Amino acid sequence: MQLQGLQQTQQRVANLPKQMRYAGANALNSAAFKLREDWGGQIARVFDRPTPYIQNSPRVTRMARPDALQAWVAPAYQGGKGVEPAQVLAAEVFGGPRRLKRFEVAFQRKGILPGGMAMVPATWLLADPAAGDGFGGIKGSFIVRLLSYLQAFGEQGYRANMTDKNRAKLSGRGRWVNGRFYGANTKTGAGGQGAMAMRQGGVEYFVSRGRGEFSGRRSWKNGQQQHLPAGIWQRSGIYGAVVKPVFLFTRMPRYTVRLDTAALAQRAMQVHLPPLYRAALQRALATAR
Length: 289
Hints:
Blueprint: H1 6-14, H2 16-46, H3 52-55, E1 58-62, E2 72-75, H4 85-94, E3 96-97, H5 102-110, E4 117-121, H6 123-127, H7 140-149, H8 164-171, E5 173-177, E6 180-183, E7 195-198, E8 203-208, E9 212-213, E10 225-226, E11 231-236, E12 242-251, E13 254-255, H9 261-286
Antiparallel strand pairs: 1-2, 3-13, 4-12, 5-6, 5-7, 8-11, 9-10, 11-12
Helix pairs in contact: 2-9
């Protein structure tokens, strides 16, 4: 008796390990993309208004091949001036203290932010469209302005630090003389006549180190007692009477594990991979030669 298709069947059996490797690589890559979706979804659930930059940071960084049955998924740096997503997510994955943000490092080097402290933006600042980014953070442009005003740029960026003249211009300080406002740099405004005031929209920033007495250049009222909580404050209003916090200094927060990437990877292997592998193997066997 002659068996029809015996040669084709033998060839299919001989190619089975090869087809299994191809199917495994395809299934692993599909599962990796499923894991990427799950990771981004969990970021959206555990974070308060995460930025698209962070939520979309999980990427399939290495694809599986038949000769290397491994696929990698990790937060990937997307270029530009953004921070490394892996650094942002580290405390959420492993727990522990939050890392200093880059602008916090700059303020700490300047001696403004004490060690072991973090900077928390005021609620009004987050709600201000000119400063808040809409995701619970502060726009980079406002941070740059604050760094420049408080001369916190280091040696490489020292040219971005505001001069005393530019700070005076920002504050809009001047004097009312005979019912007319003169800027601080004008000849009349520089004199001693009239009440000191600020133009509408003028603003000044200063640092409070908490309750106590401090002295030194640009200290609060030349060494008088401070009564404001430690932080960076803003003074505005016609006579500088409107004082409100910009950033308050608090102890560095410690995070519990909220982003369980190990559980996500396990789910990808136990839930996503098996049906994906069966489907990939069927396709591989159907097209085997």
